[in-house]
Design goal:
With 329 residues, the chain is an alpha+beta fold. It is built from eight helices and eight strands; from the N terminus they run αβββββββααααβααα. The strands form three sheets. The chain has a three-stranded antiparallel beta sheet.
Length: 329
């Protein structure tokens, strides 16, 4: 191998090295910072880029995609002196490669420490019940504080999530007993409300029944009063007609009154609880004659008053099936 061949090989190797150092290909989701004699000059975006040989070089290779960082577990004392173990995750994205590369030494470590300190501050200002029930509020407060703190670094904090909250064992047991007691209390209240509703429904039903019964008694009383009024009117008309007949000297009217009183007295005698034997008179001809006379009087009344209703009381003499009128004098 002669000198010319060796020299050509060396030149080719230098050309390849020079070409590699001059041409830079940046993958998608990454950005490279360019330094000239150690000073930042520009940022290479995804694609192909060119550097000045022996003058410029790649400084930092920055990941521009969203990243997930773990917040280490730590013990935090709440406002009411309860110890809880808290950890979380934070979602960040580099927005300015130059500031993220040159304004903070270790970006991920700095953000993790920032999250831990602010997490202690936020949780420590709240009571245990608030910490356990207001995770969204804690996340919002942490996001606001940490995003403002990382803005000079060219980093955007998208989300912060509390991954785990673990209270002490004794507090967990107390919370379990409290939850059980609360559920038992709710069950008792629900049962009492059901009994109350049932009692109210029964009382309302009894009230409606009493109202309907009272209305029925009222209607019945009204009907009875109306019937008694009509019966009284009929009795009055019959009495008036009989009185007129007596005034005219009609003996049948007098027999009507005698038969009526006789029938009523005999009915009372038959209904008496101490009367064991009922004596039925054998002479019924006088009563039959009286009834015939009453029939003639009623016919006369119909002719005088048109189609008026016959009196209700004169029909009573038809009842004596077990007695009769005493013999006439």
């Amino acid at each position: 191998m002669d000198v010319t061949t060796i020299f050509a090989g060396v030149v080719l190797l230098l050309a390849i090295v020079l070409l590699i150092s001059v041409i830079k290909i940046v993958p998608q989701g990454r950005e490279f910072t360019v330094e000239r004699f150690g000073k930042y000059t520009k940022t290479l975006s995804p694609g192909i880029g060119f550097l000045t040989p022996f003058v410029e070089r790649i400084g930092r290779r920055m990941n521009m995609m969203e990243q997930v960082l773990d917040v280490p577990t730590q013990e935090v004392i709440t406002k009411d002196n309860a110890m809880v173990r808290v950890d979380g995750i934070v979602f960040i994205q580099v927005m300015d490669a130059a500031r993220a590369a040159y304004r903070v030494d270790d970006l991920t470590y700095a953000i993790a420490q920032l999250c831990m300190t602010n997490l202690r501050t936020v949780v420590g200002s709240m009571e245990l019940d608030e910490v356990l029930s207001q995770r969204d509020s804690i996340n919002t407060r942490l996001l606001h504080v940490i995003d403002a703190a990382t803005e000079p670094w060219g980093v955007k904090v998208n989300r912060i999530e509390i991954k785990d909250l673990t209270p002490p064992t004794d507090i967990t047991n107390a919370m379990a007993r409290q939850m059980k007691a609360e559920r038992e209390r709710r069950a008792v209240i629900t049962e009492a409300d059901g009994e109350k509703s049932a009692a109210i429904a029964r009382a309302e039903g009894a009230k409606q029944a009493a109202i309907l019964e009272a209305e029925g008694r009222k209607e019945a009383a009204f009907r009875d009063a109306e019937a008694r009024e009509r019966e009284a009117e009929a009795e009055a008309r019959a009495t008036a007609m009989v009185s007129e007949a007596i005034a005219r000297g009609d003996v049948n009217a007098i027999n009507y009154f005698v038969a009526q009183k006789y029938v009523e007295a005999f009915a009372e005698l038959a209904r008496s609880p101490q009367q064991r034997t009922v004596i039925v008179p054998t002479e019924m001809s006088a009563l039959v004659g009286t009834i015939a006379g009453i029939g003639e009087m009623v016919g006369l009344a119909k002719e005088q008053n048109g189609a008026a209703t016959p009196p209700a009381r004169p029909a009573a003499p038809r009842r004596p099936a077990t007695g009769g009128v005493p013999p006439s004098a």
